[in-house]
Write the C-alpha cells for this entry.
Amino acid sequence: GHTKATTLEGVFAAGDIVRGASLVVWAVRDGQDAAAEIDTWLSSRRRAAA
C-alpha cells in the first residue's frame, strides 16, 4: 500500500482526508495502517535518540 506519511515530518494522513468520502471500513483500515507506520516511525526515533 501507499505510505501514510505526508511531506511534513511526523505528520501522517489516512481515511477520508486521503481518499475523500468513502466506505468506513476503508477509513478504519487506513487508520490501522497509519497507526502501524506511526509506531515504526516513533520506534526509529527512540532508537536514534538512545
Notes: The chain has a mean pLDDT of 91. The chain is about 60% helix and 0% strand. The two ends are 30 Å apart (CA to CA). The CA atoms of residues 4 and 36 lie 10 Å apart.
